[in-house]
Amino acid sequence: LYGERASTWWDGRVRGDLRARLRLGEGRADPYPLYEQLRARGPMVATRQGSWQTVDHHVCREVLRSRTFGVVGVEGTPHPDDLPDVDLSFLGKNPPDHTRLRRLAAPAFSPRMMGRYTGLVDRTLDRLVENVCARGTFDLVDDLAAPLPIIVITEMLGVPLEDQRTFQQHGVALGSALDGLHSLRHAREVMAAVAMLETMFEGLFALREREPADDLVSTLVAARGDRIRPEELAPLCSLLLVAGFETTVNLIGNAALALLAHPDQWDLLRADPDLAGACVEETLRWDPPVHETGRIAFQDQQIGGVTVRKDQWVFTLIGGANRDPDVFPDPARYDITRYAEGAQSGVRSAGTPAGEHLAFSGGIHYCIGAPLARMEATRALRTIAERLPTLHRVGPVTRRRSVTIRGPRHVPVAV
Ligand code: HEM
């Protein structure tokens, strides 16, 4: 582990490897100039570790949608950054296991179910906004952006109220590993969180077997057998929990930061809170919460003008693809009317639908939680514009240390 860290540092600082530099402090603070350096080198850039990286929108989209790439190699070769012994459920599986498990979770994210959760989202926002208004000065992440998705996903799963805090603690610990492990101590903490979550979920499964309720865990417990093996249940629930905790918080956080940094756009949203949905889409494009994913080639193939060999990884740098000038006119500009109804988006000659950002990935692993994330973030931004119009920063922003996940850790604000 430390050997790999040291070589990353060496590659990044001394040899100027862009993938390494992206993963160091420089990339964490602002990856966008590094993405432009990659773009200048062509659609596919080799890494020193023998894989490929790309910020080309067309290539990213093709790789993510291709059936000749997967998330695990044909011989079971896992992702190089995967943690040993952490089962990522269907996020880390190829078909047919991927299809079988995803099908079980998908109904929970249907439009009908989203309709059911809008009430909970609005009630939660109401409570959070009342609390911050009473205080005047608060942390936008801890007091607004983070609690909302946590409350919603624990409720969807059916975690009893008294257990929510403990699930949250272990979920956050597991989520901290999305970027890899940075020390032996961190590895121990993550593995302990995995074990604790499994034990807590086993207790919840037993409860819902005795007393089924109208929630996702009850549905999954009832499906145990042919459709889901008992040992697959806890990893699936942990995946949903962590995905629910660690992503939408950054979408709301990145949107708030972008608005505060672009007063003209903040004015636009305050004047017309109906732009909240378009503002969410532009934030997903301009500063997405997930910056990178990867696929392994099942066979030798030509893509982006190079030959990708069987078992080679291609890292699709979503944050860079979302600023591809061939797809998005004036890509570095944050413009919340870009996705407003009737707005003109960029057109790409190769047949890519105009202005489609890749924040939720593409193909069979396209984010299952996208409707939930969009619904929560849109309602949150509308509420902020309507009820906290005097919102402004009162202290320095601190960022998360992660590279894969991008978002603020603390944003001190006042109303
Ligand atoms: C997959 C992003 C919110 C659950 C993904 C992937 C991305 C992503 C990029 C695909 C990774 C890949 O292709 O390798 C996001 C973003 C979110 C968000 C930016 C918020 C703004 C959520 C929420 C949930 C969720 C709220 C659930 C509660 C999942 C699951 C997968 C996934 C289960 C795996 C899908 C599969 O492998 O078929 N997400 N996500 N996500 N997401 Fe999200």
From TrEMBL:
Record-linked PROSITE patterns:
CYTOCHROME_P450 (PS00086)
Q: Is Iron one of the keywords?
A: yes
List the keywords (alphabetical): Heme, Iron, Metal-binding, Monooxygenase, Oxidoreductase
SUPFAM superfamilies to which the protein is assigned, alphabetical: Cytochrome P450
The record's listing under Gene3D superfamilies reads:
Cytochrome P450
Query: What family is this protein classified in?
Result: Belongs to the cytochrome P450 family.
Name of the protein in question: Cytochrome P450
This chain's source organism reads Arsenicicoccus piscis
